[in-house]
Amino acid sequence: MEPVGRVERIWIKRAKGGPMDPARRASVIAGRGLLGNADQGGRRQVTIIAREVWDALWAEVDPRIEPVMRRANVLVSGVDLRETRGRVLRLGRVRVRVLGETRPCEQMDAAAPGLRRALETGWRGGVFGEVLDDGEIAAGDPVSWREDRPAA
After folding, report:
1. Nearest residue to 85 via CA among 54, 34, 48
2. Looking at residue 32, which CATH number applies to its domain?
3. 143 dihedral zone (left: phi>0; alpha: psi -120 to 50; beta)
4. What gap in Å lies between CA 55 and CA 59, rounded to an integer?
5. Does residue 18 fall inside a structural domain?
6. How far apart are CA 13 and CA 142, in angstroms?
7. Helix, strand or coil, per DSSP, at residue 58
8. Does residue 143 carry a pLDDT above 90?
C-alpha cells in the first residue's frame, strides 16, 4: 500500500506521569511497545496522535500548546485516525493494530486549560494499539494503512 503520511515526532516516557523525552528514532518490540517507555505490554503499547488535529487545536485552544502535551508516543501527519479500531497502521516497517481511542485525562487541562474538552470528541485524542513487529521507527518514516483486519 502506498504511504499516505509520515512520522513527524517520537516521544518516550521514562516513567508513568514522567516527562516525555523527544527521540529521532525508537526501537519497537512486538507485544511490548517502545523500548524504554514506561507503558510496556498490555493493550496500550503505543499511542499515536495526528498533526492535523494539533493544527486545529492551536486555533481553538491556545497557540502555545505543543503536541508533546498530549503525552503520546508518536505524532503522524497525513493520516486520519478517527474510527480506526481494528485497523493496522504501518509506521515505517513496524505495524501497529489500533485497539481504540485514547481518551483525554485531567493531565490535559494541567497542560493547557480547555485541552481535555477539545480532545474529547471525534477521536481527537488519538489512538492506542498493540505493536505487531520488532523494528525501529524514525521521524520521517512513511505511514500507511494496511487492510488486514483482526480475526472475529
Report:
1. 48
2. 2.40.33.20
3. beta
4. 7
5. yes
6. 23
7. helix
8. yes
Number of domains in the chain: 1
CA distance 13 to 132: 20
In Å, how far from its chain's centre is CA 5? Answer: 13
**What type of residue sits at position 125?**
G
Q: Indicate whether 123 belongs to any domain.
A: yes
Closest CA to 137 of 49, 24, 46: 24
Instruction: Note the pLDDT tens digit of each residue in 2-42.
Output: 668 999 999 999 888 888 999 999 999 999 999 999 988 88
Residue 124 lies in a domain: yes
What is the domain extent for residue 41?
5-146
**From CA 148, how far away is CA 150, in angstroms rounded?**
7
Strand 94-101 versus strand 20-23 pairing type: unpaired
Asked if residue 151 is part of any domain, the answer here is no
What percent of the chain stands above pLDDT 70? Answer: 94
The pLDDT of residue 150 is 47
